Structures are given as structure tokens and as C-alpha cells.
Amino acid sequence: MPFTAEDARTARNIWGVDNYEDTNQYLRHGERPQWAAGDPAEFRQFRTDIEAFTAKIRSVPPLKHAARTYRGVAGTEAIFGPPGSMTGRPFTDKGFVSVSSDHDSAAFYTQGEAGGAVVTVDIPAGMRALRFGKDTGGGEGFHEYVLPPGTRFAVLSDKMVDGTRQIRLMVGGQPRGRT
Fold first, then answer.
1. How many angstroms separate the CA atoms of 76 and 115, rounded?
2. Torsions phi, psi for 138 (to 5 deg)
3. Who has greater pLDDT, 42 or 179?
4. Domain residues of the chain, as ranges?
5. Does residue 179 surpass a pLDDT of 50?
6. Considering the chain, what percentage of its residues have pLDDT values greater than 70?
7. Domain spanning 67-173: which CATH class is it, in words?
8. What is the pTM of this model?
């Protein structure tokens, strides 16, 4: 399915620069955005947009090629515990997860953050992710990917190397139903 103008509007509403944190706070912790807390119609539209964006991601064709991607994560100890404590364990992220094929883009999100790390996220061929960016053929080029809520990850490794935390995840599954 092609990405339509309506899809772009929905994506901007819930995943744009101003809204992605509100969206994931709601999905991960059930916290309504303040701008929608007192307006039932705004909140309904917010939920409708989340469902539409999730459905769009789940409707794109599966990736033909595996993708090595990166995510800048602040406060890794709060998420993953001490280094190595989650190795070999799966977890599910209730929010949307954005990753980049560009390590430096991901590193931007860890600047000045205590406990920040660039996490390597491997997406196997066959997974679904909304992909943006320039394709130079064979899946090569710069891409941003958005994974749907409910994506499962396996922690492949988590170690300290020369004072830097290195975490590697593998996307391990995605739900088929509604959010």
C-alpha cells in the first residue's frame, strides 16, 4: 500500500516532532497528553490516529532485506538494568520505536544524557517497519524506520567496552492484531 497524504497527516499528528513523546507516554504508561486530557473529542482523535498509524505500519510489505539500525537511548540502566542483566531475555515495547540506519543520527539523542548509549537494533528480513529515506538499491542507503507498538525484542548482548555501554537487540516478533 502506498503512503498517502492522509497517512502523512496521521503520522505527523502522533509521531511529529511535538507529539512522539506524548504518544509513547500514553502507549507505555497510559498517561493522556495534557492537550487532550480535558477534551474527549481530541482524545478520541488521538487514539484514532494511533490506531491508523499502527495499521499502516502493519500493512506495509515485509522488509526484503535485514537492516542494521541504531537507536539513541538515554538512561539505559532504568530500561535495561545493570550491564548484562537482560542479555538473552526478550521484552516487548508498548510504544512506537524509531530507529535509524545512521549511527550518528542515533547518537544525537544521547548527547549530554547520563547513562546514554547508542543501541544496535537488528531487524530481520520479513519484519514490518515503516521505512523512510533514500534507497540506493538492495536495501542500501539512509533510512529511518518506525516499528509498531507491541514489537518484541531479544537482548543479544549488553556489555561495557572501554567505558561505553554497548547493547545489541534483535527484533523478534510483531503482533498482528489491534493495539
1. 6
2. 65, 25
3. 42
4. 5-59, 67-173
5. no
6. 80
7. alpha beta
8. 0.84
